[in-house]
Amino acid sequence: MIMNVEATLILGLFLASLCNCSLEVGFYRDKCGVADVETIVAGVITPQFFRDPTLVAALLRLQFHDCFVTGCDASLLLDESNSEKTAAPNVRVRGYDIIDEAKDAVEEACPGVVSCADLIAIATRDAVFLSGGGRYEVQTGRRDGLVSAGQNASILGPGASVTEAIEAFADKGLNATDMVLLLGAHSVGVTHCSLVEDRIYNFQGSGNPDPVMDPFLVNLLKFRCPQFSTTDNTINLDQNPFSPFFMDVSYYQNVMMHRGILQIDQELALDPVTMPIVRNLANAFDFPTRFGAAMVKLGALGVLTDKEGEIRISCRAPNSEP
Q1: Alpha-carbon distance 21 to 309, whole Å?
Q2: CA distance 89 to 85
Q3: Contact of 36 with 157, CB cutoff 8 Å
Q4: How far apart are CA 250 and CA 51, in angstroms?
Q5: Which residues are designated catalytic?
Q6: Can you give the pTM of this predicted structure?
Q7: Which of 31, 142, 235, 291 is most buried, most CB within 10 Å of its CB?
Q8: In this predicted model, what pLDDT tens digit does every residue of 166-182 receive, in sequence order?
Q9: What one-character-per-residue DSSP string does 257-318 give?
Q10: DSSP secondary structure of 53-70
Q11: What average pLDDT is seen over the chain?
Q12: Which pLDDT belongs to residue 8?
């Protein structure tokens, strides 16, 4: 049974309390004099969004890849040899420059107060809001990690099964509904032809397309992703041409119609555990609220507070050696 919005949000806040992390909404209130930290960040994200709406997907991916490894500690931002940035799953992660810009802005207003980990959470929320995803309350009070190791960056690939994905999310304290909600970020994302080539031309070594995929979509993707092409084109993960940068339920509607791009996306609508969740979300009016509640839970993973971390002066380098 799918939990209602209130129950989901309450559970998210409860789990956050279990992490012994003392996150709270409005943590920076009165900590920067008359300056409001979230207003400063919004002043950076808003013009960036109108210049490039793809930053929504970029920031969502950045936050997920940061939080899902050693927790929401901004370790992904560190520029070091063999850092998380260098790991294969993170090669195409972007948005670092936007967080740098937000950091510069808050440092000018109140030096040494706002963590890079909190800036990721605030900036991502603002981008989601601008893309129609609703404005959820961001808990803050995180500190930044001191270490970033590429070998820690183990992120599920697009070919993972639903069972594998559920297990990976469960290891982080997130349930199947959370997983399906967070994959709703694919409503604004893109992927590359190289990651779906097998589904188009040689599914499981058959020499044919994935039989589950809508034949019209197969032909469309073949046009976008010619076989043996030297160019790795991008493809919208949400195949609704009217809302490629809008956080909405058309992603779920598309996978219900066998128009999922990544294998994990399509399998959500086929697996008996996730199928009813997808079907519910495909017709949901409260998706923005539920997605926000899932993001609150994601943002509470492995949080460092008090003396466990630091407030970095630069998001790309620790203040001190670990």
Answers
A1: 12
A2: 9
A3: no
A4: 24
A5: 65
A6: 0.90
A7: 142
A8: 999 999 999 999 999 99
A9: TT--SSHHHHHHTTSTTTHHHHHHHHT-S-HHHHHHHHHHHHTTTT-B-TTSSB--SBTTB-
A10: TTHHHHHHHHHHHHHHHH
A11: 90
A12: 38
